[in-house]
Amino acid sequence: MGDGERQVQQRFGTSVRAERFHAEQTLDRLNARMREFVARQEMFFLATADAGGACDNTFRAGPPGFLHVLDERTLAYPEYRGNGVLASLGNIEENPRVGILLIDFFHDRIGLHVNGRARIVDDAVLRTAHPQLPADGVPGRRPVVWVEVTVEEAYVHCAKHIPQLYKASRGPDEDGRAWGTDDVRRKGGDFFGAAAGKS
Prior knowledge:
By secondary structure, this protein is an alpha+beta fold. Helix content is about 25%, strand content about 30%. It has 6 helices and 7 strands, in the order H-H-H-E-E-E-E-H-E-E-H-E-H. Strands 2-1-5-6-7-4-3 form a 7-stranded antiparallel sheet. The termini are far apart. The model has no long low-confidence stretch (mean pLDDT about 90).
């Protein structure tokens, strides 16, 4: 816990509640229930910051368990070919601290925070150390590199404000996504009008 966190807790009178939460709910590893939870999730949110503290938050998704539990203190997820900006990887190169938020909107309606230190690992290197990692035959879903995260802190995200969502069937072409494409339209085009507003 940082000094700023303590100061805000004192300001709002939540120090006792916060201390109890940390004592009862925060682990320095993933227990069995946390590992099982991570292993069935299909998405997470990733927070990174560069050396100067400029933040970035991004979304990652894949088949259940694409955020792999290597052991109780280590996670790894694949990085695929994207838009070429590489903001998350660039930040990790400068500042290894990351925050991962997994939320199960569909079944348990609960979340898990995982904070730790990340490093970028070549695909071949991680597969040598962990040969059980799955290989995907779709070119756009082949990892360029992996991000390995050493867990420093893991704790619950309460269900109180998590909405209940339901998955919709997409029909026979359920996975008709354009993995690895550079087609601007198929990636979402100028949905928010940013390019149009610059002309």
